[in-house]
Amino acid sequence: MSPTTRQETLETAAPAGVSGAPSPGTGTSRRHGWRARPAGRSAGRKAPVHAVPFKVRWRRDWQMVLMMVPGVLVMLLFAYIPILGNVIAFQDYQPYLSIFEAPFVGLEKFVGLFDDPDFLDAFRNTMVLAVTQLVLFFPVPIILALVVDSLSPRRIRNVFQSIVYLPHFLSWVLVITFFQEFLGGAGFINNTLKLLGMGSIPFMTDPSTFPLMATIQLVWKDAGWAMIIFLAALSTVDVSLYEAAAADGAGRWRRLWHVTLPALRPIIILLLILRIGDILSVGFEQFILQRDNVGPGAAEVLDTYVYYSGVIGGDWSAGAAAGLAKGIISALLIWGANSLAHKFGEAGLFQKKVG
Amino acid sequence: MTSLLNRKAPGLSYSPTRPAWKEKPSLLYSSLKALIVVGVTACIGLPVLVVFATSFADNQQIIHAGGYVLWPTHPNLDAYRTLFSGNLMIRALGVSAFITVIGTAIALFVTILLAYATSRPVLFGRPVVLAVLFTMLFSAGIIPMYLMIKQLGLIDSLWSLILPGALGGFNFVVMRSFFMGIPGELIESARIDGASDWKILWTMVLPLSKAVTAVVGLFYAVGIWNAFFNALLYLNDTAKWPVQVVLRSYVLQGKSMAADQLGVAVQAQPQSLQMAVVVVALLPILLVYPFLQRHFTKGVITGAVKG
Known about the structure:
The structure holds two protein chains of two kinds.
Chain A: H1 6-13, H2 24-31, H3 36-43, H4 54-85, H5 108-113, H6 117-137, H7 139-150, H8 154-165, H9 172-183, H10 188-195, H11 210-235, H12 239-247, H13 252-277, H14 285-294, H15 296-299, H16 302-312, H17 316-343
Helix pairs in contact in A: 6-11, 7-11, 11-13, 13-17, 16-17
Chain B: H1 2-6, H2 27-56, H3 59-65, H4 78-85, H5 87-119, H6 125-137, H7 142-151, H8 159-162, H9 169-180, H10 184-192, H11 197-208, H12 210-226, H13 229-234, H14 243-252, H15 259-262, H16 270-306
Subcellular location (chain A): Cell membrane
Family (chain A): Belongs to the binding-protein-dependent transport system permease family.
Organism (chain A): Arthrobacter wenxiniae
């Protein structure tokens, strides 16, 4: 094929037999084949013969492929090559050796985790925190959404929504600082108690109440944000259902129970399943910021364990093993949760990212 | 007769904001709702107010009130003057501003290109999208990331805070689902007119996507501004610390800002100084929040549903 202009190349690529002035429809598909392709693909799954040969598609799409290069490069460098770097979990890695020189030790590091009381603590804390979050955090956005949805003057509703979304955009450092300033040993509440001649209460440093404290912090930061998805679901409820229920004599609470909650049920089930799939991730910065004050006995979670045993403690391979195990189990759980969500007839994947 | 007409049915009095079928809210119900609204607002607003107020308050009032004030009686800028007289905070602000602005620009560039290219059924489009989605499901973990950054020689470089986050999976999904909504005919007609894909993106698609670009850009900016752990992990050099890490060590961990770090003797009450640091970290978010808030719900719901 001689070097031709783009226009001519694409003309040659057109299916043979079409000559003369084509209709607009065939014109576009000849030009690109973009819209023709997906249909052809789904129709002919068993015989994936592309209507347009690779060379022609390359000529057509090379600019688009070029646009993918920066993104693909970032992905390779900071996602996929590091994933391969997890190979050190199967090695006895030392910083002075390179990954290629480190001796392989098989699953030794994974087995070793179960003999490490710190790891078992971290695992237990993660589970305790996840369950506390599930029980105490999960209902709050639903209740908040019901309240917001029933606020009648539009202005008040909008202002209130703006206020409750705000904390989501504050960093964990700021959030923990706020809590420290209010509830810490020298914070607002305890200073007031002291002025009144009473003893101080260790809200922020008591390991036994830490799961509760951490969940309250999470509620403060993210309950408003998590409400968005429920508000969206509430806005789709058919008003005539309420009207009909009211005409049949259903009061406010009966309408809530028989109309609103059934309308929210699919989304509640979906988010619940996805949360359970994500159970090993309870947060990271929140705990690393408070680990020193509360102590690792209560505030060490799987993610902080990886950091402290690997980067700080120097046992890189054990840290990587813990991280890898967590990553694989999480991915499987999320995948399983999604399949479950699909079984319930929901279009699930990545909806969890809202929370 | 008139009395009968004027008599209202119980619980069905007319109100312009309430549909006819809805009963009049009972006192208990209204007050419960008001309590929730006021309570939630106070929980969020009060800390912000106290932090601002204390940072402007004078020493005597702070000592008298036991550390925190709700409203400064003699507002002054001493804390800020002390804070900005040394170069610790100015440097931290410079670092944070640099990584936020450059980082957002790079991230937008990378994300827009990839999202646009994969929003059309082009060569390699499908596998690349799947590859991005997979990174949302499974991340490499802290240690391999650290080793990678080290291998690239980015330890103690500000690029370690910018490059790894240049492609956010969620932002990619939001962008891509928006681009997918742009009618193919529009783009095809431009191609027929001989425009290159780059030109189509730049002169046609982007002007149509101002709102979504703004939201995604602000998501990136807020994320970079708020990030704290990556700086702790990758930067050993305290001179390169961004604002969040400074906030952590001087306010949360209570390290004193020594005279040598600030460059001057500390004049303001440490409490108001600490609160001034908090305000410096908080203010940029409060300033961009109104712009962010105008669009984000739509973006979030699109991204969530179409992912």
